[in-house]
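Section 3.1: Structural characterization of target chains.
Under the original work plan, the team committed to producing a structural model for every single-chain target entering the pipeline before any wet-lab resources were allocated. The record below documents one such target. The sequence was received from the expression subgroup and is listed exactly as submitted; it comprises 56 residues.
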Amino acid sequence: MKLICPECGAEIILEDKPVENEIVECSECGAQLVVKQVNPEIILEVLEDIGEDWGE
């Protein structure tokens, strides 16, 4: 299965169909992507890095 990285436009090849909320990584730019939707089409979004707020 071939998908396109929304961050850099590189092709991502997956062996199996992904499931919602699965995290995949782009081998070109290293971005972590989350599968937001699988039907009717697969939608990938860049995973937002939620950093530690250290109690703020």
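The beta strands are 2-4, 11-13, 23-25, 32-37, 43-46.
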